[in-house]
Amino acid sequence: MMQISNENGNINFSVETLANIIGVATMECYGVVGMASKNAKDGFWELIKGGNLSKGVKINCKENKLVVELYIIVEYGTKISVIANNIIQKVRYNVENYTGLKVSSITVNVQGVRV
Question: Which family does it belong to (predicted)?
């Protein structure tokens, strides 16, 4: 649970809500095929295109700032460094704009490439 406090009161954000905001922002970026989630049964990474995008997102809180880790699958033939930079900018902007929470770092892990 992440919280913002001001003179008017408190706002609490569930981790699931933040992960969904981050997942949707990531999927809107060019070159992203989907989020990746590790299958608990066999340990392989599986593609998540819709529904529960938060499975490809890990969030921690350090000193009232978010530390975000993303697991994605990209489209073949795209420049991964450009995609990652776009994701970082978009996720930071959306989280800080929509929630008021500050993001200290975003790590993009590319788990696969799809044609």
Answer: Belongs to the asp23 family.
Q: Regarding beta strands 102-114 and 65-75, do their DSSP bridges make them parallel or antiparallel, or are they unpaired?
A: parallel
Residue type (1 letter), 31: G
Q: Are 72 and 111 in contact (CB under 8 A)?
A: yes
**pTM, 2 dp:** 0.86
Domains and CATH numbers, the chain: 2-114 (3.30.70.1350)
Per-residue pLDDT reduced to its tens digit, 74-113: 999 999 999 999 999 999 999 999 998 999 999 999 998 9
Burial (CB < 10 A; 0-12, 13-18, 19+), residue 80, is middle
Q: At 81, list the tokens.
A: 């460094």
Give the Å distances, CA to CA, from 6 to 2, 9, 66, 83, 100: 14, 5, 18, 36, 11
